Amino acid sequence: MAFVVIIVIWNRLNRFPPRYGPEWGSGGIFGLRYHNGVLYFTLAFEAEAHFIREDSYRIYEFDLVGDKPTSGGDTYNAVEVVDEFIYFGGWIHAPAIYEGKGDGKATISFVNKYSHVHEYDTENDSVRLVWKESIHHPREWAGEVSDIIYNPYMDELLLAREDGHKNLGVYALDRRTGKIRLLSPEPSAKGALVHDTAFFGIGNNFTEGLREIHALDLVTGRWEKFRLGESVDGGKYVHPHLGAMGGAYNRAFAFVRGGIFIGNPFNDEPFDFVRLFDFYTFYAPFRTNVLHTGGGILIAFNSHHDAFYRPRTPEEAEFSRFTNTIVGPSVLVYIAPPMVKIVGTFGARITSLEKAMGKLLLGTNTTPNVGALDATPFDTGNRDIVLLDEKILQERPPAVSFSLPLAFPSKAMELGAGTFGGIPLDGYKEPRLILKASRDNELTIYEYDLSLPLNSADEEKFDVKKGRNVIDLSSFSGIVSFKLEEPDFKGNARIDLR
Predict the structure, then answer these.
(1) Could you give the dihedral angle defined by the CA atoms of residues 142, 42, 306 and 20, in that order, rounded to the nearest 10 degrees?
(2) Distance between CA atoms of 4 and 376, rounded to whole angstroms?
(3) Which InterPro entries does this UniProt record tie to the protein (predicted)?
(4) Residue 179: is its pLDDT beyond 60?
(5) How would DSSP label each residue in 152-208?
(6) How far is CA 241 from CA 194, 197, 206, 306, 328, in A?
(7) pLDDT of 436-492, one tens digit each?
């Protein structure tokens, strides 16, 4: 019977082209969750919560928050399940106010922007608004709900809030009464459960990125703070924007731009950094989620999730290059320490991950969020849900290539940028690095893996001549990153994995 339900649900999945929903660029399909015979997801920026059952297809347009037309929804995968309930959060414009274009600017008003948490009852197909909040300001907003974690001891929902101007931090929400209380004022985008502790990433995500990791004891309510550790390859990490967190192997995993912080200070393991897909662009595991499956972790590193569309200042122009430089496809990565394996390649971004009946569900999108003064009255992306067989976790990885400039952004260089890559080689027989150098140089290759506890990298040096250099990587294993002795601002690199 369950398999029949799944087939019925699969047959009702659609593609979603651009439609009305005032915001910036494109949202996506977020919060994918299959629970108790119901497939839920939110379509942003249309502000539609979809609930697909064997015998019905319901679309809720957030009219419990405010008047239509609504827009927004969820762009961080804030969803949790408890018993027969699906809790979904995010933010909503209700009603949405598109202010139009003028003087080279296109904006919307935030005066009706609400943060929210809803409850869907899978037993009786009903939606209830648990909590909403707005500061009713035309240019600022209350912290969006970007993560929901259930605390079984207190029977409450923990809310992470970082994206916004007011009321940021970690909150506890009574899921029955809707009463909310502040647990920590530190901005936090994501969290993860490990044992009886909830670890939260702390920092301003679109500026500095992850700064610290704070731990909440779910039983005593006591907080502890932990600093970030060192990189296993010895290089600097720059702009570690936090995308997702997961808990496995008695450790917390914080997925950031450029790699992963892994650790458990309660077991004398600091949150050290493993470089992974670090190209000094905005290639990052951002606006996606961790999926725990097969005892490991499945995560997407996205090539184009947030970007400037039309820069208006020199600073915006540099950030536009940082966010719009596409060095490779988005990759789906399976982590089963010490192994890290690429299991899929996709377009601009994977927005949400879920599994059901041997299938993996991926929400995908062709278009990033954009910022500044480029609002549109409709979502600009083409979004769909891709179904994959779960067996891809055990198959050979797909062929993939990355092509990147070696001229890192000036601000990154000031912060010590220089080491790049973090390429998982598991499953590839003929990996190679092609360097097109504008000068003679020396290349260091760092080799490491995800063995726990983490170990320092081994290294090997190669002479680089001006022109085209082909370096066979088949003698290396695990993960490799690279560093040139002297910066080569006119050079570029291509990494081919076959």
Answers:
(1) -90
(2) 41
(3) UCP016666 (IPR016675)
(4) yes
(5) TTTTEEEEEE-SSSBS-EEEEE-TTT--EEEEE-S-EEEEEEETTEEEEEES-TTTT
(6) 21, 23, 7, 12, 19
(7) 999 999 999 999 999 999 999 999 999 999 999 999 999 999 999 999 999 999 999
Please report the pLDDT score of residue 330 as a whole number: 98
Checking if the pLDDT of 410 tops 80, the result is no
The pair of structure tokens assigned to 40 is 């839920």
- Distance of alpha carbon 113 from the chain centroid: 23
What is the C-alpha to C-alpha distance for residues 298 and 35, in angstroms, rounded to an integer? 19
In the block, which residue shows the tokens 């933010």? 91
Q: Quote the pLDDT of residue 484.
A: 96
Contact criterion met (CB below 8 Å) for 383 and 350: no
Alpha helices in 166-279 (DSSP H): none
Architecture of domain 2-400: 7 Propeller (2.130)
Pairing of strands 223-231, 269-275: parallel
Got the DSSP string for 336-393? Answer: ETTEEEEEEEESSEEEEEEEETTEEEEEEESS-EE-TTBEEEE----EEEEEEEGGGG
Pairwise CA distance, residues 223 & 421, whole Å = 35
Domain boundaries, the chain: 2-400, 401-497
- Amino acid code (one letter) for 46: E
Percent of the chain whose predicted confidence (pLDDT) is above 70: 99
Beta bridge pairs of residue 445: 460, 482
Class level of CATH domain 401-497:
mainly beta
**Residue 1 reports pLDDT greater than 60:** no
Where helices occur in 47-178 by DSSP H, the ranges are none
